[in-house]
Amino acid sequence: MSLDEHIEKGRVLRARCAVITCSDTRDESSDTSGALVEQLLLEAGHEVTQRTIVQDEPSEILAALEAARGSDIRLLIINGGTGISRRDSTFEAISQAIDTPLPGFGELFRMLSFEDIGAAAMMSRATAGLSDGMFVFSLPGSRNAVDLAMRKLILPQIGHLLAERS
After folding, report:
1. Whole-structure pTM over 0.85, yes or no?
2. For 126-138, what is each residue's pLDDT tens digit?
């Protein structure tokens, strides 16, 4: 099947999704990044069946990932905890759970971020991969970073990714 055929097939594929925000400070009223992820997924025709906020603790992050993986979620978007501060632990937690890495996602995200924020983009540890067949994308917690990743990388390709794994 050609790339164009894969992309066309992917246009009709929709995913059940989960959104996890990793933050020690955000709650439902201040989680604008998680709300943006949910909004963009819904606008693209996907279904968001879970949305939660967890502390930036590896055990909480992994428990939320396991809960999503234990259901029929096909796409998990995590935002927050991808920087280099002492409390940022999302990368370490997610890396344990990913069995098929998608290194191109992080590389492209940092390249696009560099165009917006310059050399500070190197501090992002945005990552993606598959965890037991579920696509996992781990994004920074800033609203601008979420918007960039969702609009330029994830949403344009999620149908194609789903088609590859159906």
Report:
1. yes
2. 999 999 999 999 9
